[in-house]
Amino acid sequence: MITKEQKNRLHIFLVVSSLLLIAALGAFIIPLVQHRGDLYSINFTGISVGGLEKSSTVKYQGVRVGNTEEINVNPDDLKSILVTVRIQRQFKIKSDMRAKLMFIGITGLKYIELYGGSNEAPCIAPGGSIPTEPGMGEKAEDIVQNIDEAVKRINVLLSPRNQQNIEEFVEHLNKTATVLSEVFNIRRVNLEELLIQLDSASANLDRSTKELNLFMANLNRALPADRLDRIGRDLEKSLNSLSQRFSANEFGRLIRNTDTGVQRISNAIVELKHEIGMAVEMIHDAFADLRSFTRRLDEDPNILIRKSKRRRSKP
Fold it and tell me: 248-299 and 302-313 are packed helices; what angle lies between their axes, rounded to 10 degrees?
């Protein structure tokens, strides 16, 4: 039989053991509850979250600061995925922080990377939303999509019809280049000749300039300034003397007579030139006959003997 004293001892033991168990559990559970962290939402719009799972890591610049709690399709926007994350309470989420998806090696698994933030920026309250930005994976997908689109356009560009058009264009371009090359070669020869003529003309001009300078120098030496002034004064005196000796009518008649004499001399020169030209033509014809006779005599020397016999046979 269990005595009353033993029952009391058993009751005291059970009560003390229960209190100790509750205290031990509280010592372990309370810190876990306190340090579990605050919830935040991240809305990935137009971004695939394939490879991201519940309890996936959330890091800030490579340091783990939380994990994912839930991954659901946003009921308000079917193009976005709403991810709920739990962040450690000692880590403060700043308003200028951004979230992006990153790959874990080559396994295809993903985690959430937080970056940015400054001490001066205000904190986002627990339950708030963290802005997003495309990560390397999404950028790689965009690059692959752009490359695929570029390949499609290249395939359209390199279709048989376009290839034929390109070949015809290249052929026409080659023909045009050949024609331009020939024209350029011809023009280059003409240009070289023109440059040679310009060089020759420049040399002649330079030589003429030097000769003119030499002539002017010689003229200046032969006719100094005082002599030129004296000649000018003498000429002016002669003109004044002529104007005093002859009246206006007499001077005009003298000029007309002089002009008539010059005209007669000019006509005589023209007639003499004409007569000289005729004489030159006659001399030219005589020389032509002489060359013809000499050529015939060279070909047949007996012609001179035959002509002599003919002259003798005449009565």
Answer: 100
Q: Which amino acid is at 296?
A: R
Structurally, the chain folds into a number of domains equal to: 1
Domain of residue 50, residue span: 34-133
**Tens of pLDDT, residues 208-253:** 677 766 766 666 666 566 665 676 677 667 666 666 665 566 666 7
Query: Whole-model pTM?
Result: 0.38
Task: Check whether 306 has a pLDDT greater than 60.
Answer: no
Residue 118 covered by a domain: yes
DSSP 178-229: HHHHHHHHHHHHHHHHHHHHHHHHHHHHHHHHHHHHHHHHHHHHHS-HHHHH
Is the per-residue pLDDT at 207 higher than 90?
no
The single residue listed with the structure tokens 């269990």 is 2
Q: Is residue 101 part of a domain?
A: yes
Whole-angstrom Cα distance, residue 300 to residue 145?
Answer: 104
Q: Look at strands 63-73 and 80-87 and give their pairing.
A: antiparallel
Report if residue 115 sits inside a domain.
yes
Domain assignment of residue 54, yes or no = yes
